[in-house]
Batch of 2 targets.
Target 1
Amino acid sequence: MKITDMRVFVVGNPWKNWIFLKLYTDDGITGLGEATGGLSTKPSVGSLEEIRHQLIGEDPRNISRIRDKLYKALFLNSGGNAAAGVDAACWDILAKSLDAPVYALLGGKARDRIRIYANGWYQGPRTPEFFAEAAAGMAARGYTALKFDPFGKNYMYMPPGEERLSIDIVAAVREAVGGDVDILIEGHDRFSISQAVRVGILLEPYNPMWFETPVLNSDAAAINEVARRVRIPVISGERARGASDIAEALRDRAINMVNPEYLGVGGVSGLLECFAVAKAFGAHVAPHNAQSPVSTAVNSHVDIAMQNMLIQECFDDSGVEWMDDVLSGYPKVENGYITPGDAPGFGVELNEEEALRHPYGERNFLRLFEDGWEYRNS
């Protein structure tokens, strides 16, 4: 089997342009991957176009070979989202060639279902009343965990009024959902160490499951400093670029949860390495996923097979109304849990015609340090 072509599709999701790639083979089997950038689009598309010639003629089932080839071709660089998307597409093809779901190739199921935490559900005004109502609605749909950023556009420092509003929003959500629903507080790398510690102490009465990346999460020393000085769990790892970054985050043992993004750490192959490193440190993994339902499916196949998986992020129930016209076969959240399907590969199909009806948008970006970003309007 040889790769004969790769096509790239940019789909204009309103707050982040989705980037999909499709590998074609001489056997007629295709593989679908995602290479959506963090908050950029064209750099990832350009990267895919530049590595296309490295893929043509390769057997996509030789995933380790292709991964090593790209790493060396890019002068010992992991290749970012582009290479990660190729890695996932190759796993899709390998599993399809064996007529098996991807999770079966990873050792089978370690659990029957995967607990989900919802994100993207607070698309509206930054008021305690709105957040409480929206949170109650998600809990009524069966979610047992909700993540949100109550901090507006603040960066490094919050004035007293902004601090009070942020904590009032957390208090309102806790009251709305009760004590049996976990709340996860997103910091989005916003704060200095001193501000993060101050906020972490103020969050304690509301018993959050975690305080996520309160300071720049690529700064392991800063993350660990905050974690030591607050009494609520801190999680980090979203900016990791490989398993070595996860090891560095866990080395001082101030945190015991990490949230790598598979598109940042080298695709399915890289995420598996992160799970292994975390297990060596006695830590749990809660994979980051702020992308499309393709990434939901990819994560679900890894999650279901990993013993130290904690919980999975998902935006899908807060997505655009035309999402199911573009993508089919991805696992749906039911009462706060998902289970990957048993179709060969990841089981997801891209409707190429429908994808072309939603082109790239130059304003489709979430600007987290500008007013009104939480509306997620382009």
Target 2
Amino acid sequence: MRRTTILQSAALCAVAALVLAACGGGSSSSSGSSAGEGGFKVPNLTALDKLGTPEGEVSVLAWPGYVEDGSNDPKVDWVSDFEKESGCKVTVKTFGTSDEAVQLFRTGQYDTVSASGDATLRLIASGDVEPVNTSLISNYPDIFDSLKMQPWNSVRGVPYGIPHGRGANLLMWRTDQVKPAPDSWSAVFDQASSQKGKVTAYDSPIYIADAGLYLMATKPDLGIKNPYALDAKQLAAAVDLLKAQKANVGEYWSDYLKEIQAFKNGSSTVGTTWQVIANLAQAEKAPVQVMLPKEGATGWSDTWMVGAKSQHKTCAYKFIDHIVSPKTNAAVAEYFGEAPANKKACAETADKAHCATFHANDEEYFSKVHYWTTPISACLDGRTDVQCTGYAEWTKAWTEIRNS
């Protein structure tokens, strides 16, 4: 689940692209399409073969907090030195949701984007991003292997991006009002009535995966193997669970500052959160605790992707290489509140406990995290005897849940 801001309707064509075929209007370098995993089709685009002379500029589309140039805080700047060293002037546009990122990137105005897993396949299918040549990213060998060549950043063995950071969507509760301490997502589903009106949940279609994850553990007869691969029957079960939850939800949140305030004043007592929110709430003396429930959790692993229409690809590659370098990746991870993707970044953090707090090196911890992946009609769990539901159907379902 992700962010409206860390400092504070899907594009229909991009959504439709997930129903096996890509939308029209992709890159001019496309020459048709080829079938990817499970029938998922992607335009035939190729990665940059070598770096050229820096074009002098790069336009970046990013989550707030990922690309800081000192304008928000003079002490927080990992852009100025890059501009001097590379000769590439950086301009940044931030976005609040993955749907907004997809819509903006489709304009072709941006060279690179920090895409979450609920956006990546949409961008790939519509031809808005192209494969990446990992050999041109000097820091790529130092990225955690578990983040490379995953379903949200590659298709049919072809990499489409460079991992940036990761985190889990956790369960948070007020220790003075929720007793005994929960260890399961049942606290926000089957047992949510005990905190009626004070349950909080993330306001996004991708939250349906959280219900899918809970059902995967508690209703094995449904046959859910991947919370992002739900057939019509499985999606209906998740929708029913979320409609039942809604009677107990006081607020659906997307602004992390508002969630902190809600837990501080007690209007929210239990719900989904991020580690950074828990840290900030505790720093403000809110009596909260946080944990990864026994069923596991959803989470994110963001990906830097290169625009197929970009006219500044050398600068884009240089920027991506810089942003995932140990020192910069450490700075971003600390400022934003997540685990860095570069394993060498942990030695560069100002807070030497940062990587331990965010479980950066704990692969057992992250093995329980189901990273955001865009739902598509070709079942991501490998099933071929049934059609799964795509993001457009999830969006429709979420609207139905919120209006129920």
